[in-house]
């Protein structure tokens, strides 16, 4: 889902108000306006179809359990199970070593951890089918499945995993590969996206603090990515589409951020939920707490002068969950109960009331022609919106001259105002 902001372009000669339209998208993404009308798709959850149904011809007997031969490949560098600086209380899910068991009849029952390992290894060997000498519970399959996609943001070619069990207590797992993907070429594509993530990580590590490194990744991805609802149902709505093609939707933004920050040693992940329609965003462990980020909603509208926003950078539950809900099938849901590192509070842009002189001073101090303001309550936000926009106080600011153009954007649910300005 992409938040499409209401936009005001102001000059001393002309005033133009642009209302942004609605774009129909699938379960991951939707663009909304200030007064939004949601559009939903007819597609079920992207990754969560579990089925023991298959071709009836295959149900009578177990297929021949012969693995295809694969060439020896140099291993892709893996992401640590627990990244440096992650919580040590065991709350973050990792691929553990819990074992399955044999029942009284000698049939093997896989644990969720063992299923995860089988699924992960199949992905890393670029297989589209594997056979297991045992069975498992539906809940363990779902658990393992969720972890595969939670913990491995570099996996972009698998659309779904389906299973079938047989009378001899064995199972078959089918890996549905996205259309447009040639499985024989996935290794090279996988290596390409890992190398790109490491390239961005290397640039970010040059920043002096962890906070600035995370912000660099956030800004870099937004600055180099174009939001494209056309890729939603494809492999391009993953880290590959974002980092290599430069076009993706919300799932791709989130996967790319997770991949780069994981490569840097941070514990971060992706959450699926709703914000008028189905949507994805990120969390990261920083300091001693989790924080939310939403790169899609921080990506400004298209335009030569639009700059990266930070309204959804390092947010708390109180800020982020005002206008969204989290699906309960996520493998991990963090508690983000601190606002210490919210962007506006870190940078003196959090205001308890509308104060023209304060806003004028803040705008004058911004050398890049962009400011993100957040207000402590709805009344303060509405006072600022009315004064700056409706009453024209924006014209009175020190940065405004007869040659100044301005983007004025507002976010009713989050009590935020963003302003961009530039000279002709």
From TrEMBL:
Signal peptide residue numbers: 1-24
Chain residue ranges for the region called Disordered: 45-71
Limits of the Transglutaminase-like domain: 204-294
Biased composition (Acidic residues): 52-61
UniProt xrefs under Pfam families: Transglut_core
Taxonomy, superkingdom: Bacteria
Keyword terms of this UniProt record: Signal
Gene3D superfamilies xref list: 3.10.620.30
Annotated InterPro entries: Papain-like_cys_pep_sf, Transglutaminase-like
Protein name: Transglutaminase-like superfamily protein
Organism of origin: Ruminococcus albus
